[in-house]
């Protein structure tokens, strides 16, 4: 039910709140749909927190590779918490209103953690490149201070890139009759389309952010693996080649799990206006919910040290 606001004779309008939507066409079964969503959110938080605890409590995991994995897990926790409150509020309680400023804040953090995740995946590809191409200098290149500077650089880059977005939206005049969003959270591309004003600047800046962060990151990741493959093929022993490539499998899967939905969301927002609303919603949920769920599974299955450390943490929790 839409709130009854009166906006007669207003030349500049910003809605007090937007109206979110769950999964279009399936509103009658939102209660049932909330069960898998709640399970995925719980799995994402549990798995990523387990990785953080495992790395922290296991001295043998205090290495660059696992520090970067901790950054990825922390980012996934942030990404999960960015969308979980509003999504579950819509599915559980049909609470669909979100304040204008709260929407802008959620939008900032949602995109912030997405850009951070892209940057962390790039840093992890650099870690694999150094480990394979120059293993003797690995520890001296990726020292603790270097890793801290990389982490701070990632946060600074995301903050500087995304800081203008809320202010670019706040300057727009919105339509009183266009307060219904396409998701149960606030996307920049979705919110700006609710404006009754020229959004050319928003479109250009949004495209610039995507290309200058995820676009460049994806190209540099491909370049890293091209160099890694060149190094691996120069190894004399087939066993050494397989061992070297095996250390990259988890990261390659994490890259695919993140970037394939990113490409899907970008393509649908640009060219998929004719598609049913449910397709937009499902692709967005895959982009935001699935990577935080799958990343802990990928690393716990493919990395024996991580798996052992996570099981040790679970055993300690049960004893405690």
UniProtKB/TrEMBL annotation:
InterPro entries reported for this sequence: GPCR_Rhodpsn (IPR000276), GPCR_Rhodpsn_7TM (IPR017452), Olfact_rcpt (IPR000725), OR51/52/56-like (IPR050402)
Keywords: Cell membrane, G-protein coupled receptor, Membrane, Olfaction, Receptor, Sensory transduction, Transducer, Transmembrane, Transmembrane helix
One Pfam family of this chain: 7tm_4
Location in the cell: Cell membrane; Membrane
Gene3D superfamilies, per the entry: Rhodopsin 7-helix transmembrane proteins (1.20.1070.10)
Mode of membrane association: Multi-pass membrane protein
Coiled coil: none
Transmembrane segments: 7-26, 32-55, 67-93, 105-126, 146-169, 203-228, 249-272, 278-301
Entries under CDD domains matching the protein: 7tmA_OR51-like (cd15222)
Annotated G-protein coupled receptors family 1 profile domain residues: 47-299
Functional description taken from the UniProt entry: Putative odorant or sperm cell receptor.
Family: Belongs to the G-protein coupled receptor 1 family.
Name of the featured protein: Olfactory receptor
Species per Swiss-Prot/TrEMBL record: Rangifer tarandus platyrhynchus (Svalbard reindeer)
